[in-house]
UniProtKB/TrEMBL annotation:
GO MF, one example: rRNA binding
Protein name: tRNA/tmRNA (uracil-C(5))-methyltransferase
Function summary: Dual-specificity methyltransferase that catalyzes the formation of 5-methyluridine at position 54 (m5U54) in all tRNAs, and that of position 341 (m5U341) in tmRNA (transfer-mRNA).
UniProt keyword annotations, A-Z: Methyltransferase, S-adenosyl-L-methionine, Transferase, tRNA processing
GO-annotated cellular components: cytosol
Keyword tRNA processing: yes
Highest classification ranks of the organism: Bacteria, Pseudomonadati, Pseudomonadota, Gammaproteobacteria, Pseudomonadales
Pfam family, one: tRNA_U5-meth_tr
Organism: Pseudomonas oryzihabitans
InterPro entries, per the entry: MeTrfase_TrmA_AS, MeTrfase_TrmA_CS, SAM-dependent_MTases_sf, TrmA_MeTrfase, U5_MeTrfase_fam
Amino acid sequence: MSQPSFAPADYQTQLDAKAGRLRDLLAPFQAPEPEVFASPLQHYRLRAEFRLWRENEERHYAMFAPGDKHTPILIEDFPIASQRINDLMPRLKAGWQADVALSFKLFQVEFLTTLSGDALITLAYHRPLDAAWQAAAERLAADLGVSLIGRSRGQRLVIGRDHVLEELEVAGKTYSYLQPEGGFTQPNGTVNQKMLTWAHTALGEREDDLLELYCGNGNFTLPLASRVRKVLATEVSKTSVNAALHNLASNGVDNVSLVRLSAEELTQALNEVRPFRRLAGVDLKSYDFGTVFVDPPRAGMDPDTCELTRRFERILYISCNPETLAENIAQLQDTHRITRCALFDQFPWTHHMESGVLLERR
């Protein structure tokens, strides 16, 4: 595939190339034609991070080409980022340029926004933050209508909230999500909704139970829980676990048990290799698992977790790396076949893509 370019006229060609790549990777497994879910061409990315570059006594938003940390690309706007981020960028820049308490040794800015319009800005410094910074930051946050976090070594000062609130609609129902600073969230909110809807449809209405590995902040957990009797979900990140517990409670989802275990630890628990205190009060034998849902990191599932998923009639798999997805399917193909697959263009103008497959027992 040639290097992608940011040119709206080229988008369909790039998307077709990604679909062809996924088709080729899944061809050895007789996969059906992938469903393709496109992205908006602009203003789709809800997160953005910029280094700052000092030039002519001013600090500018900057990015760097891969492998080059010395030649900045100065940025005034960022068309792939959400409209909210683009609206905030010049106002934030004017704010730090007008106040030395905000600009002194400021080296990085991070934006986190939502489809529902919420925004959080994190400012990172190479100095301790003092009362003058606090006062200036409070004025700036009020002027911008955002929450703001200041970070320096050993310090994290929060003005407003340390999270944003998102709303996503799946199958006619709106779910609310607390998304904490520093926690993982899907960057492309529009495509995330399409991905959630696809998974909700692919799972179907079930009368048995769901095991979910790598549940994060409950992004998939909330809509999928409406399709099954009950869910056992696992996650290792404390930040994500706390966000998921909040999201389950705030949405009134009461058929999910969430445990802080890795996929490997859960495998040991299901195999009765050893007990885990974190499973206290969870009766694993009470579950009638029919489907396992996995959304692993880029490395995919390790071989033992892959073997664990083989036990289930259905494996619903969302992947951010089609190569490791294909490797995992190769391990499973003797017992399971692909009955649905999809491409979700979370990252237009790049080679990256998100994909999904439903595997069912042969």
